[in-house]
């Protein structure tokens, strides 16, 4: 099972970064993905939930799974401490996306959207740790915390 089985997926994304002033960066990403060959049906895109790499701030119980995924992310990143190799930064974000299996499920009302903030800590010899928390934009329901290594995108 897993990596020993055949599968094929395609991911396309566009990322952009703009730093108008020192330590202030605006970052954005557009993502589209499709699982093209998955005979054992072990692969799915996930939108929402604490381990989602596409949309933060959505409870796992409200997350979406599907063969196709679309997502958009915007972040404002502010670097508080930049003393190489240590760093500390704050992030504000807005995420939106959906996962679906066929065109009939592609409806704007199904779009999951969230906003939130986070912290980035750079640890020497280890790398960047990411801590985020967010809220569902439609219900204002708290979506919990997410944790990861490296930037979201």
Strand content: over 45%
> Helix share of residues?
under 10%
The order of strands across the largest sheet is 1-2-5-6-7-8-9
Q: What is the number of E strands?
A: 9
Secondary-structure element order, N to C: EEEEEEEEE
> What structural category do the secondary elements indicate?
mainly beta
A few lines on this structure:
The chain is an all-beta fold and 153 residues long.
Topology:
Blueprint: E1 8-21, E2 24-37, E3 45-47, E4 64-66, E5 68-83, E6 86-100, E7 112-123, E8 127-136, E9 142-149
Antiparallel strand pairs: 1-2, 2-5, 3-4, 5-6, 6-7, 7-8, 8-9
Would you write up a description of this structure?
The structure is a single chain. With 153 residues, this protein is mostly beta strands. 0% of the residues lie in helices and 62% in strands. The protein contains no helices and nine strands. A seven-stranded antiparallel β-sheet has the order 1-2-5-6-7-8-9, with no helix packed on it. Strand 7 and strand 8 (127-136) form a beta hairpin. It is globular and about 50 Å long. It starts with 7 loop residues before the first strand and ends with a strand. The model has no long low-confidence stretch (mean pLDDT 93).
């Amino acid at each position: 099972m897993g990596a020993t089985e055949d599968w094929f997926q395609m991911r396309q994304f566009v990322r952009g970064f703009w730093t108008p002033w020192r330590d202030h960066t605006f970052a954005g990403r557009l993502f589209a993905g499709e699982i093209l060959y998955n005979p054992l049906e072990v692969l799915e895109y996930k939108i929402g939930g604490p381990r989602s790499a596409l949309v933060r701030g959505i409870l796992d119980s409200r997350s979406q799974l599907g063969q196709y995924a679309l997502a958009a992310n915007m972040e404002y990143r502010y670097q508080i401490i930049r003393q190489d190799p240590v760093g500390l930064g704050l992030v504000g974000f807005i995420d939106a996306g959906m996962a679906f299996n066929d065109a009939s499920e592609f409806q704007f009302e199904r779009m999951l959207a969230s906003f939130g903030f986070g912290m980035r800590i750079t640890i020497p010899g280890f790398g960047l740790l990411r801590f985020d928390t967010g809220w569902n934009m439609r219900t204002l329901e708290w979506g919990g915390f997410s944790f990861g290594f490296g930037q979201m995108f």
